[in-house]
Amino acid sequence: MKAVTGRKKQVVVVGGGPGGYEAALVGAQLGAQVTVIEKEGLGGAAVLTDCVPSKTLIATSDFMSRFAAAGRLGVGFEGTEEDQHAEAHMREVNSRILDLAKAQSHDIKAQVESVGGRVIHGTGRILGPSTVEAITETGHEELRADVILVATGTRPRVMATAQPDGERILTWQQIYDLAELPEKLIVVGSGVTGAELAHAYLGLGSEVTLVSSRDRVLPGSDADAATVIENVFRRRGMKVLNRSRMTAVERRGDSVLVTLEDGRQVEGSHALLAVGSIPQTKDIGLDDIGVELSDSGHIVVDRVSRTSVPGVYAAGDCTGVMPLASVAAMQGRIAMAHSLGDAVSPLNLRGVCANIFTDPEIATVGYSQQDIDEGRIEARIVTLPLSTNPRAKMRNIKDGFVKLITRPGSNTLVGGVVVAPQASELIYPIGLAVQNRLTVDQIASTFSVYPSMTGSIAEAARRLHETDI
Ligand SMILES: Cc1cc2nc3c(=O)[nH]c(=O)nc-3n(C[C@H](O)[C@H](O)[C@H](O)COP(=O)(O)OP(=O)(O)OC[C@H]3O[C@@H](n4cnc5c(N)ncnc54)[C@H](O)[C@@H]3O)c2cc1C
Ligand SMILES: NC(=O)c1ccc[n+]([C@@H]2O[C@H](COP(=O)([O-])OP(=O)(O)OC[C@H]3O[C@@H](n4cnc5c(N)ncnc54)[C@H](O)[C@@H]3O)[C@@H](O)[C@H]2O)c1
Asked: ipTM greater than 0.95, yes or no?
């Protein structure tokens, strides 16, 4: 990275989530004077309400699930039957989550300030292609900018007929104020957010109903992987209602009533709404300066994060490009490198490793089976169930698989799916191989530990070996 010389360029970042704060760190490293305007706290929704809190909740839930599975590995507990179950104390669980998120936000703010960045606690509004206004509790400040980066993220979509009340009808951002575990939780929406949180509360001990508008849960994921998760959900006692679109949610005293499109009604103690997000791109001055938005309200950007207005960049969920923290951060870094004249490679989504934190987890990278089925790429696939893996047998892991996708001829790896406990860790070698265009033979000839889960990756690669004999 080379630093900018001459007058310091002024960069103003609106929104301090991964898209914004990672950009701020790179901008400062490249010698610019960076100001971040953030209205909630640095780290953004990713750290304060979405990614970090949900994964921390899931850590507790997964820990509890191990107690339930202990018997199958020969572990018994002393004492009476009543003593033998683990119980989640939600006040403590949630206060740990909120403290952890706050501490992480504080660390990020300190990091940005330590490289010379300025953080303004307030709301940003774009007044012109080189002017941003920061509205704070004490007044207004106009900031001149050579470069503006918009990274304002999204917020939960709310339907008029299903208004959250923050007590029993909740968005995923409101669940950490609960003092008690929801007794009968209805999760509406079976995308990644709905599936992860339905899994979390099932593990914590709630009775969970998952309302899924589609044929199966996780409609955007690998179909084989989603089938494994749906089967596991049902086996563990979750009620999954497929092809069931919610039309309304009402509060009835201490309970909630969810009405479905076909007239059925489901009663629970709490409803958790996970029906998607909307971009926070309105009323921040984008229209006034002519920044192009898509029909869904996302900011249109190219692969180096440029918007339609020179000098104005955008990163993260507000652009609608693969809504992941890692992608937001990469878009932000690329925006800074491009705007400040550093070497830059355009965003490449084929190398993105993503993970769904259910149990087992679903991790993916590169081309998918859907890409092959729909003719976007010609490829060979092998799917290896984990049930034959010796380490999996020792750990009593029965659900899951490794799927590898290769190009015929060159035999380079172009994609993969891992469904396993901690698939988020196991996907990395596959990601490395996809990113560096390794062949299946190179993977197959790399030693894996015996016994290990990664042994299944090497074994799947061996099965894809092509011979001329
Ligand atoms: C429940 C859930 C779990 C998730 N888990 C994961 C995960 O495990 N891994 C993963 O990679 N991704 C995960 N994601 C996705 C991830 O959270 C997002 O991709 C990420 O937050 C995007 O970062 P961002 O910087 O674009 O926006 P955000 O993190 O949303 O930050 C945007 C910030 O901008 C601020 N802002 C908005 N408007 C203004 C304004 N006018 N002035 C000042 N500030 C403003 C907001 O207050 C917010 O703090 C999850 C999402 C959800 C909903
Ligand atoms: N582990 C992770 O990395 C992680 C976790 C959560 C979210 N995310 C990111 O956030 C993105 C958004 O995920 P999401 O799950 O929040 O939103 P989503 O839009 O992907 O899913 C919402 C789901 O709700 C359903 N739905 C909408 N209206 C409904 C209704 N009335 N009744 C029943 N169902 C209804 C939709 O069909 C859809 O399946 C993901 O693509 C992912 O990139 C990532």
From this structure: yes
